[in-house]
Amino acid sequence: MIIILSGEPGSGKTDRSMLFEEPIKILDMENRDERSRIRNHSDQVIEVIPMLIKNNHIKDYYQSYLVLKKTVDTILKSDPEFRTLVVDGISDVRGKYAKAKWFHDHPKRKNPMPEEWTEINDTTKQILEPLIDIARDENFNLIFTAQFCDEYGKVEKLNDNGKVIITSEKLGREPNVEDWQSYNMDTHIILEYRKPYYKAVCIKSIVGCFEENITGKSLYDILIEKGV
User: Which CATH number fits domain 2-226: 1.20.120, 3.40.50, 3.40.630, 3.30.300?
Assistant: First the structure.
């Protein structure tokens, strides 16, 4: 099953992606850490793998393509029992590697026009397609997390006492990726945080569209329940 989880910051994309019951590995596309690390989450021990080449951050599209494939091949050889791979932060694939390729191809330009984002999306697709092919061939779940918002205002997250613990305010993000069918996804789930609950909106799946309040629930259980 190939899933993309998208949504605003603080809507729980990363945490929800790790609520699957099968053994999980996480590929950190945002390079938060230069070393692989172990993370305990909901009684699971999860290995987080950074996207790096010889301790240097990846800088271009071709490198990212090669390292993604090599990393997954290595995971399959070292741990054939794992069932779910989370690619955390594919917005970075699009915003850094694919966009860097666009600037390389258009050296005299400062920014792409809205209609030219198709080229960047196509490059992103080229980077991700090998992972999707491997997942289907090897029969494991592949979950992408992404922030693909046109723009948004203030996002607030409350604790149990109703106090705001997260405030995020950003405007003018890149245009949304509209046609996920071209990425050969099985399911696209938009995660929303709406006081006082989380909501998952599934806009493409083999059981059709649905909305679900997922407060206190496992996303994995919701998908199984819906027959995805």
Answer: 3.40.50
For the chain, the domains span 2-226
Q: What pTM, to 2 d.p., does this model score?
A: 0.78
Average confidence (pLDDT) over 117-140? 86
Q: Which of 21, 36, 133 is nearest to 84 (CA)?
A: 21
CA gap 39, 36 in Å, rounded: 10
Average pLDDT rounded to a whole number, residues 130-134? 88
Q: Give residue 52's pLDDT band: very low, low, confident or very high (50, 70, 90).
A: low
